[in-house]
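Weekend entry, working from home. Most of the wet-lab plans are on hold until the incubator is repaired, so I used the time to fold the two sequences that have been sitting in the queue since the last round of cloning. Logging both here for the record. First:
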Amino acid sequence: MSTPTKTIAAAITDPTPDGIARGIGSLVSSDALPGGTRLPTVRELADALDVSPTTVGDAWQILRRHRIIDTEGRRGSFVRDTSSGPTIRYWQVPTTGDAITIDLGSGVPDARLLPNPLPVMQDLDESPVVASYLEPPVLEELEAVLRSRWPFPPQRLTILDGAMDAVDRLIQATVTVGDRVGISDPGFPPLFDMLDLAGAETMSLPLDDAGLIPEAVDNAVAEGMSVLIVQPRAHNPTGVSMTPQRRDDLASILADRAVLIIEDDHSGAVSGVGLNSLGTVIPDQVVHVRSFSKSHGPDFRLAAVGGCSAPISLVERRRMLGPSWTSRLLQSILARMLTSPEIEASVAAAADIYATRRAAVVDRLASYGIEVGGTHGLNIWLPVNSEATAVPMLAAHGIGVARGKPFRLEATEKDHIRITTSALDTRIDNVTARLAEASAGRLNDSPIQNGGRR
């Protein structure tokens, strides 16, 4: 019996197709079966597990469907190598070079509206001292500030390197091959990729202007959903924010069910709307992720994670094998920024400006007869007749936007593009006219004229 066969056989306690797939998925996740490993043949593994080849074949289908393994004809099946190249939903927006002069695609905040951290840094009287690699991962002064502002009393709280790092680590800690995970569709492409890499079975959940649709969530729970990832406000890409009534409706469905809820509050203080967290109703099931990238600066790479203890503890234990903690110096700076009246006022002013810019584009699109959903955040989900036509046509006129298809789990008849309005403080009339033309599938050839501020 070959080494991979022995390794796989020893890891499988449930010799069903799902059990075999889970066992192999766990070995892949732990690097016990690294990318490129040649797997035993169906018959070899069936003999080792004393099951039928059909059972193993069904497990192979599950693993291929979740892109854990690849089958190459007579060469056999191999663990997929994900060490190089982007995953299939990763997208790149043409926002660099001379061709793109107006960036509506990258999704970043306006650097001019970020608070200046230098006064806070200059006032630091001493740098936090790290006496041991086993010190708590959260600076005491920052934890006190965060707990006082958290939407619900968190059982545990930690700091990670941004919202995507936090969600990725939570997925790694709680999702295994075949787990059913609910997520909004449309949604944020990197989240889809993370779930693919974990081998999850993603459950596409539609949303309306109040948030995730309760009936869809109820059906997902009935079908075995174990994790739900939700953006509670300023949803990317649609701008939808969950209402208090929708929060309560979803909480009544999810309460006391074996479902972990990960809340991705990616825009935080610049969302332009209050937070309706499911954790205020069912705190024992929620881990809330609060990002400070868009409000205080992407380069801080900081996000707070607070909520039910078990998944956060899993993340912290795994993290001790690597970076252990996020820079305590950066944590100290953030703590002071969060308690600075001047910086808090600056962040609040930025949120108002973002809301004004988004509303201006929405209003102008409405004047062209184009209605878009959502009301908050930095993004607009714009319907277009053809994404394949709209994106290059806008790029030819110097406007970079994000393609819509990577934001979808399931194909739809209607195409969209995502536009980010955060830095659009000039030429709004001309740009919106171009967007309206792109939505209809026709653009005229006249260049965008420089215009004054709105």
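Second, folded right after the first finished:
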Amino acid sequence: MIAREQTAVRNVGLLLMLRGLLAVGGVVVAAVVPRLMGPTGYGQVALLVTLSFWFTLAASLGFTQVMGRHVPGFGQSSDEDGLRSFFGGLLAIRIVAGLLVAALYLVVTITWLRDLDWVAMAVLAGAVFVRAPAGLCFSLHLGLNQAARWGVADILRQWGTLAFMLPGYLMGGLRGAALGVLLGELVVLLVGKIGARSYLKWAAFRIDWHGLWPYLRFGLIFYVSDLVLSGFERSGEAMVRALCGDYAQVGFFGVAYSAFLTGAVGLPQIALAFAPLLTVLRLEGDQAALRLWIERLLKWLALGSVVVVLAAVLVGKDLVPLVLGSAYRPVAANLIPLAIGLVALSLTSVANLSALTHDRPSVALAAAVLRLVTFWVLGLSFVGRWGSWGASLAVLGALVAQAGFFTWRMRRVVGYSLRRWVAVVGLGAMFLPLTLLRSSPAIDAALFATFVVCYGGLLLLLGWVTPDELGVMWRAVMGARSPALGTSGDQSS
């Protein structure tokens, strides 16, 4: 690999490790925080904090995509002064947007939630404001081909929940929890500012609307797409409650969907980490290498998704009551269609990456709208019949519809092949009959282990994953120098 490819793969490997830590932290937070806060206290805190993140999204303005797409161009031309001016202008806009959205959050929550402490709402409004510049400082690293640093913000924020919010609640109730959230966000901002200090220049801290408008227009379309997808992600529980009227079904869907989001957030994030590399390849006109990396990414995302599907099918019924309790057994059935949805999401993640690097934000927006509309059309039919499982099926249908449309449109632009994706998914599907042998938890675990060994062995035997490829990826992740991985020596992609 050349240096930039090695850097991209190493950062994705580190990003995967961070996602693993995030998953572990999620289990710890879920096991500790709700128990110590109690149902009422946790419900109040969760509502206010969730609302604060919704308003934070409103201040994002699509700048993460702008960073991933346009910052590599400054590096390609070695224009550090231009990058500082670019970053300073976006940071100024983000701070103004954060201030306005924080004020809006305070007005909405005080008006709507009059039974809660307004001081806590004011403190959380401060957290909304702080997240605006902090998020941009970390997004800068995405454009600099340092995706691992970009992913650090999630880890800091999650563990800040345990370090600051929980003790704050135990000492000061809702007001203390809000103060803990603000302290955690200030830590995130401090770390982000330190990481971006080389690009912070006060002279560039001004809003040049004329110079920034092309970038803002590009980001705003992705921004609207993010808002639409947020509506999809947050409306499932409301649909189940409205059509079913059973809070137990709402809970079953909510728990399953939270588990699904661990992968659903990770796949697009891993794909987006390749944005700087693909942007540079496009600027150089190296279409062959660009398609090679897209197809390689498709293959690996599909492989990971297939393993998750077989895990849900073979050991889901055993793990759910073990982790959540016997009352949550229906969650295992919900996990299966949601896990299958990750296979479709692997296509969507790569199509979204292609839309970003090839300046097709309108296609991303159309795909997001299709996903939301399909979910509601199917949900209105399925939820009334099958409750939370029907909602999970509606999610699957929406993901498949989005993946089909998005992939069709972006393959017309980029021309990448789906041959290896189909092969990897098809090979995994061949192991589904193992479900007929399910019995005790020990046997189910053995069946899953058998699938992993046989699936990996067949991938190696068929040459779809090669030892050389694994070695190169491993050395890149560990930071060692790697031999070239060219198109002729890597037909597995």
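Plan for Monday: verify the second prediction. The chain has 15 helices and no strands.
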